[in-house]
Amino acid sequence: MAQSTAHVGHHHDHAHDHEHDHESLKTFGFWIFLITDCLLFGTLFATYVVLHANTNGGPTAKELFEMPGIIAETFILLTSSFTSGIAVLAMNKGNKKQLITWLGITALLGAAFVGLELNEFVKMVHEGATIHTSAFLSGFFVLVSTHGLHVSVGLVWMIGLMFQLNKRGITTVTKRKVNVISLYWHFLDVVWIFVFTVVYLMGVM
Amino acid sequence: MAQSQSGSHHHESHGSMKSYVIGFVLSIVLTIIPLVVVMNHMLTKTGTVFLILVMAVLQFVVQLFFFMHIREGENARWNVMALIFGLVILLTIVAGSIWIMTYNQVVH
């Protein structure tokens, strides 16, 4: 009797471990994706750095960049990275309501970031600084908008996940999904720090 | 009960409020320092470039350890190895491009 209970218990653990392995493998797979994304941004950074002095008589970085907006974007994204961390903490406590709220705050901050960035792009285009103007601006728009696109995709994903969490609650699968999107969000914050440093700070120096 | 404890143990190790707050404060400080130095022209050009790049790299390290918990979880070793591999290629692409294009312009 005791033996059979132990056996059943063992079976249960085994199935649990198996599922757990599967989920942690998926998280590792996401790390690999982040590394490839890192390489994508690396090549775009290399292109930008190589081309940034070639302005073809058009506006230079110094004339074009308006720091107040950029500084606001930076602090908004830093804060959203922090709030997505708080969301994970709420999840580990098993608090679904708090988790969804913090994800919502993160998504709002992300939307504010994308809004400010689009506003900046529209202003630049109105001033005649388009992707066609010079090699510098081609490099600039491709690098910065690739990051903006990543943030936008993250937003759609996060909102979808909030609906799923609301419906299914915190399960092994949704737990992994929240961990993964939080990783993605922190990663985008890191990329932005390098955009901020290499493109904007070095541009206005 | 015992199982749920051992199950949550893995996830509970994923940071605490304290580590998130420390990480957040550090990342803000590491953003303000380069900002102040650049806006007030406090250093020479080379000095500024060096300083702000060091700050950005430190910021990356803060995010990795305080927010992304690179050392935690069962696959921690593989995460780190994949990251190092990625960074080697990244540095080769970026530094290699800059180096060869600078050389290109000197020859012209």
From TrEMBL, chain A:
Keywords assigned by UniProt, alphabetized: Cell membrane, Electron transport, Membrane, Oxidoreductase, Transmembrane, Transmembrane helix, Transport
Membrane topology note: Multi-pass membrane protein
Location(s) in or outside the cell: Cell membrane
Presence of the UniProt keyword Magnesium in the record: no
Statement: the UniProt record of this protein carries the keyword Cell membrane: yes
Start and end residues of each Heme-copper oxidase subunit III family profile domain: 1-204
Residues passing through the membrane, by range: 28-50, 70-92, 99-116, 136-163, 183-203
Coiled coil (residue ranges): none
SUPFAM superfamilies, per the entry: Cytochrome c oxidase subunit III-like (SSF81452)
Pfam families reported for this sequence: COX3
Main location: membrane
Function: Cytochrome bo(3) ubiquinol terminal oxidase is the component of the aerobic respiratory chain of E.coli that predominates when cells are grown at high aeration. Has proton pump activity across the membrane in addition to electron transfer, pumping 2 protons/electron.
NCBIfam families for the chain: CyoC
Family, per entry: Belongs to the cytochrome c oxidase subunit 3 family.
SUBUNIT field: Heterooctamer of two A chains, two B chains, two C chains and two D chains.
Protein name (Swiss-Prot/TrEMBL): Cytochrome bo(3) ubiquinol oxidase subunit 3
Naturally occurring in which organism (per UniProt): Paenibacillus hexagrammi
Gene (UniProt): cyoC
Automatic annotation (TrEMBL), chain B:
Spans through the membrane: 20-43, 49-68, 80-101
Membrane topology: Multi-pass membrane protein
Keyword Transmembrane in record: yes
InterPro entries: Cyt_c_oxidase_su4_prok, Cyt_o_ubiqinol_oxidase_su4, Cytochrome_c_oxidase_bac_sub4
Localization in the cell: Cell membrane
Keyword Transmembrane helix: yes
Record keywords: Cell membrane, Electron transport, Membrane, Oxidoreductase, Transmembrane, Transmembrane helix, Transport
Main location: membrane
Family under the similarity heading: Belongs to the cytochrome c oxidase bacterial subunit 4 family.
NCBIfam families recorded: CyoD (TIGR02847)
PANTHER family named among the record's database cross-references: CYTOCHROME BO(3) UBIQUINOL OXIDASE SUBUNIT 4 (PTHR36835)
Name the record gives this protein: Cytochrome o ubiquinol oxidase subunit IV
